[in-house]
Amino acid sequence: MSSDNSPFMQQYQGYFRSILKWEDLAQLWQRVRESAQPWNIYAPGEALPEGPSDPATLEQFLHELDQLLRHDHDYDYCGIVYADRLDAPTMIKVYDPNNLGSSCGSGSQPPPLPGWVLSHHAPCELQSQQILPGNRRRWWQRIFGG
Fold it and tell me: Greatest CA separation found in the chain?
């Protein structure tokens, strides 16, 4: 993981709350849509975004991500999305349901990086030891090109 002292990294290493219920996730996405601040969308292992996403791309990403999470994390609870603030989020970490690993960080391996990060701050590179699976890379590229 990057060791710089940027606002992104300071926030990234801060306290986050889990979104446990699917209906709370829907409310979180609505808060993101209603936010007056622009959102940077970053997938560790992919190139850093050149700038914040435009509203249409953000909407497409939220829609597709919500579908992916509900399909691939087939449980009656969410628990894989974390926000710095539930009422007015400025950073959201979304863990890939197909790459959860040991989230507690026990053992010799560090916990996995989130699959996606949404942030008001421009992100810095998060060093991933894992290769993004082909299906996730295609999914990402379908939305963001590349």
Answer: 42
